[in-house]
UniProtKB/TrEMBL annotation:
The keyword Lipoprotein belongs to this UniProt entry's keyword annotation: no
Keyword RNA-binding in record: yes
Residues annotated to bind GTP: 107-114, 190-194, 248-251
An MF annotation (GO) of this entry: GTPase activity
Subunit structure: Part of the signal recognition particle protein translocation system, which is composed of SRP and FtsY. SRP is a ribonucleoprotein composed of Ffh and a 4.5S RNA molecule.
Protein's recorded name: Signal recognition particle protein
Family membership: Belongs to the GTP-binding SRP family. SRP54 subfamily.
Residues of the full protein shown: 1 to 296 of 457
Organism (species): Aestuariispira insulae
Membrane topology: Peripheral membrane protein
Enzyme Commission number(s) from the entry: 3.6.5.4
Reactions the enzyme catalyzes: GTP + H2O = GDP + phosphate + H(+)
Principal cellular location given in the protein's record: membrane
Gene Ontology cellular-component annotations: plasma membrane; signal recognition particle
Amino acid sequence: MFDSLTSRLGSVFEGLKRRGALKEADVKEAMREVRLALLEADVALPVVKSFIKTVTDKAVGAEVLKSVTPGQQVVKIVNDALVEMLGSENTGLNLLGEPPVAIMMVGLQGSGKTTSTAKIAKRLTEKERKKVMMASLDVARPAAQEQLAVLGEQVEVKTLPIVPGQQPVDIAKRAMQAARLGGFDVVMLDTAGRLHIDDSLMDEVAAVKAAAGPSETILVADAMTGQDAVTVADSFHKRIGLSGIMLTRIDGDARGGAALSMRQVTDCPIKFLGTGEKMDELEEFHADRIAGRILG
Ligand code: GDP
């Protein structure tokens, strides 16, 4: 991800850095190029506009520090604006509350929800020493529940035994009950996806949320789908209320628009990135590191 954005921005800044003094016209010209690069990376237009305005205002009015060249200073201003656009603080997962706390994973089919559920469960088990149980509430897709059970064995996290025919809300209640009795800290609920957002999906997810009272509701979205991922997140947030986003497939050649637009459009933090199919290919999201990656 970000490869072409990085190389485009790189050449804009190379030009700026070579200049001894920066004139307003130089900044404006550079910002025209940055604007194009962001649009090409599929960043949402309102996000691009506010980004360019912030950077231009700061860069034109900035007093040049003695320690850096004017060009370097513009790069720093762009870096800071990127961090802000991406959401500066990483809040991590909220696991406060009386155990077991529920983490609900929602999203469209194929976004990487089941894989991401198991990745987060593995991380909580290994890094945070939590006793985690996973439960699949996907009764719509054949073998979805078995898929989670297989991943559970792989990452050595317990999964709720499958009761054929049981419906999502009842599975969620059974999972919470089993976790309470078994002394688990965290229950990860892998909800059903659909190919598109529809009312029955939203009603189901809302009913599960009401029954489980999760401390986190994480939308899993595929970075490769660009602005569609942002639209999906926005719809889920408005209807269900999200606490965070996990963006998957950033190991692919996604142009980065989803990552860059998500926070401002949805006002929801990106908490994790999926960086591959393997169970430890999960990264915590840190805006400063991503900005650093983009600026090369
Ligand atoms: P679900 O329908 O949303 O539960 O999606 P799955 O978890 O079944 O994932 C669909 C496919 O995407 C599987 O082949 C996963 O291995 C793959 N996948 C999930 N996350 C990532 C990721 O971060 N990177 C890559 N390259 N593949 C992923």
